[in-house]
Structure formats: C-alpha cells, structure tokens
Amino acid sequence: MKFTATIFALALATAGAFAPQSSYGVVRTNSVSLNAEVTVALIKELRELTGAGMMDCKKALKESDGDVEVAIENMRKSGALKAAKKATKVAAEGQIFIRSADGNAALVEVNCQTDFVAKDDSFLSFSNGVADAAIADKLEIDELKAKFEDERVALVAKIGENIEIRRVQYIEGDVLSTYVHNGGKIGVVVAGSGDEAVLKNLCMHVCASTPQFLSPDDVPDDVVEKEKKLQIEIAMNEGKPADIAEKMVTGRMKKYTGEVSLIGQPFVMDPKKSVGDVLKEAKSDVTAFLRLEVGQGIEKSDGPSFAEEVAAMEEENKL
C-alpha cells in the first residue's frame, strides 16, 4: 500500500513539472490550439497576464494564432509588453517642439512622465524627428503616431516611461515669429506682417497672457452670452436687483471680449497700451497665433476599465 502511494505521488509531481506555466508565474488551465478564434475571453486572459491594453492583446493573439504563451513571448521580444504596461501611466511632462519653413510652422507636443526624461537625449532625438516629419510632410496627429509607433515602443522599452505624441498644430503667414519658454514648457508662434521685433515681443505676450481669440470680434456670441449669464448671477448673489445687474454686466461685456482676445489685451510690456495700439504704431499686423503648453488639459486617471476597453474595441471593429 505504501509502495502504491509513493508511485502515485511521484506521478503527480512529474506531471506538475511539465504543466504549462505562464511567463508571469500564472498556471494556465486552458491550453489553446493553433488557429483558435481570438475571443474576448482569450483577450481578457492575456490582458490579465500582461497588463497590456485590449487592442494590443488582440493584435498579439492574432499574430500568434491564438496561442497566449507565444503572444506573451512576442510582446516581450518586441518591447510592446513593456510599452503597453507603461501606456496606462499618465504622461503629462515633456516639451513643445517648433519647426518653421516656407511660411509654415508646426508645433508638436511630445509627452513623458517626468521632467528628467523630458531632457534626456534619446527623448529629444525622438521628438525632434517627429517635429521634422511634421513640418516636412504636414502630417496630422494620427499619421505622426503611426509613422513613429515602432520608434516610440522601442524608446519606452529603453527609458522605462510612457511616451506619447500628443498634439500637432500648423500655422502659416508672411512673417512667422516663434518663441519657446521655460525649456519647452510653452511654445508660441505668431503669424503676421511688419516689424519682426514687434512680432517677437507679441510671442512673449501670448505666452504670458494666454489670449483665447485674435480680436474682440472673433469671440463667439455663445461665449459672450455664457459669460454674461455668469456675471449677472454673481451680481444678483451680491444683492443687486435683476434689472440693475443686467445693465451693469452688459457694459462689462466689451471689456471682457478685449481681455480674452490678443488685439484687445493690455500689452504685457507696456500695459497702458493695448496690443492693437502697439501694432498700429509699428505699422504691423497679426493674422493668427498658436500657443501650446505641455500637459494642458491632461487629467490623471487609472486608465479605462476592462468594460470600456471592450466597448472601444467593438466600436473599432464596426468601422
């Protein structure tokens, strides 16, 4: 009886030694044959094993004919696994890169997770390459991302931080003046005509004063109306009768449209004059401007839930 029990235990131990093991220390209980259908359940399994996103898992499983272990090994070899894990990390640091040529300028924002990496030579080399491609080929953001995805994945694997090509915007004009502030934290381009020194000063003004529109006439009616309602409510909360509040606020709206537009703002280097006054004196003009600030509008989160990723994948499959 003891001999039989010993043989049985030995058989169990031997079988366990050859049981399929995940590279991440998780035992897989459902082996998948080659050419298996890539199901949501299979994608979820790979996602739980690797922490990669839904679309990354789906792509890896298709390339491996549904074999989870092969998919994991392929992701590890290409660096995609490390990049996918880092993709859930919020990249709110980075720099703005500006390129100009032949009356056109491109502003590109490339993000990373820390200010230290934003100064790294590898990050700068990658980002400058993106900016060069943007001005050379006028690529939109999705095209830029696709063009540099393999390089981005390799850089993430090398540096260990999430890297994102976030935004690209273009501007054209007879004269283009550019300004990069605080090591690339803010980038500004002003397009116009006339005195180049004045336009350069206006770049610094745009950097400091953050105008939303070019001139008071460019402020949309709905923006003015929204601000008007807000100011009336504030006045009434301070005890003003509704009719009095209405008259007070109506008079303030002209001042408001000036404050949010470049031409109407007090010139930062001489607040007694408006930007419009400065341009008139210098016989110059501004036709457009762009201002990008690193991380502007980025909200930190833990990333999409599994259900949200499934929904997004299903929507993409419909296209």
What does this entry look like structurally?
This protein is 51% helix and 18% strand. With 319 residues, it is of the alpha+beta class. α5 packs across α8. It starts with a helix and ends with a helix.
Number of helical regions: 13
Q: Gyration radius, to the nearest Å?
A: 29 Å
The strand line-up of the biggest sheet is: 1-2-3
Tell me the total number of β-strands: 8
Order of helices and strands, N to C?
HHHHHEEHHHEEEHHHEEHEH
Low-confidence stretches: 1-35
Strand content: 15-25%
Report the major sheet.
3 strands, antiparallel
Broad shape = globular
Distance between the termini: 66 Å
Secondary-structure-derived class: alpha+beta
Estimate percent helicity. Answer: 40-55%
- Average pLDDT works out at 83
